[in-house]
């Protein structure tokens, strides 16, 4: 629940007793109260226009509005924060007290966001990302005045001053044709289905039957049953496509990825139509980049681009993502400007893994459906179900074999200057370029089949991104050369005849993450 327990607060407070505690802005309470009054007015208007309808949706909306306003008032009354020379501190709660303190040197990024009601009241929500383990490493101050939020960000990351336009270099901007890549997805059907389901029950509360309206429209148009079904499915997909497009525009409207060119440098993303968001990431914490290409979207050459940086877990996509889902060519172009140095690691050719890795994947793709078919054959023989059902899993063999081939041809790794690059994945191709100084150790694994075929899986612990990356089924000589070339100071400890001279560039300090350098080597 907290970063530190309540008994630790006096010790932390004693170091900054002279710094006063501050309130959140009271305007957030009035803003939510105004939203409640507007929702109440619209509900009363709907009840007046449809007097015969059920009143439970109005009661639920009113109750939710009252509860939200009361919680915002309680949060404002009980929340205090302060910034000392050493820490950012926040305490909140009434019946259950909560204290949170984060050392300022562990702050990795500052994220500010604002919904429409915040923007109208000139308020911002400040999210402070700390270099802590797990996904709950962020705490928020909701809400501060716009000027106070900007001042707080400059105070916590003093070298960043991205407001003047002449101090920024734009790397990528919003492209309208990206909307079409988001629209054409299978998930559009589910998005439309959920919208229609909610609309049906909402209209039912006013004695309006959506199904009856659709049936009457189909009958008046003279459509048969089959054609009505086809038109309905097409309409659902079109509705879902436009729904996904609207969501994409609302989230990434006016998107910009820029680099500040001040003393320290930082990557900054701005985006949002109804809810604006700005995320700052320091250059000195960047360790690489991660490009993921989902299998179902690879035919459109789309990719998701994530920054590999210390202190920010890659699962926190709102902070780690630096681009919307866009063409992989655009992602690779942006990587040239994001990664420091003159080397372009993503353009380097990758080493192909041994052919025995392909045979292993094809065997795995065969015995899994075969094992399921064998179990179903036995159950059919005992009379549990029909004796022909066991053949169904065998129909999936062409699909599993195809996935096995794809999984093999995505395998690859290489060294490119100060970067190591690994690629793998069957259902989604993941390519990671990681600075060698970010490697905290190595984990080498061999199954009995890999030992016979002289292959091994190389694991790469690090204090950045997903914290662990893999190069599966590399050849034994390939793996040892990869380790020795990337980190000779670590390879010398467990690889015979490794190069003894240490690298002039040391790996990240252990405080950058939870994985220590020598302790993580296996």
From TrEMBL:
It comes from the Bacteria. Residues 76-155, 408-482 form the YdbS-like PH domain. Pfam families: bPH_2. Keywords: Membrane, Transmembrane, Transmembrane helix. The chain crosses the membrane at residues 28-49, 55-73, 178-203, 223-249, 365-386, 392-411. Residues 497-522 are annotated as: Disordered. PANTHER family: TRANSMEMBRANE PROTEIN-RELATED, UPF0699 TRANSMEMBRANE PROTEIN YDBS. This is Membrane protein.
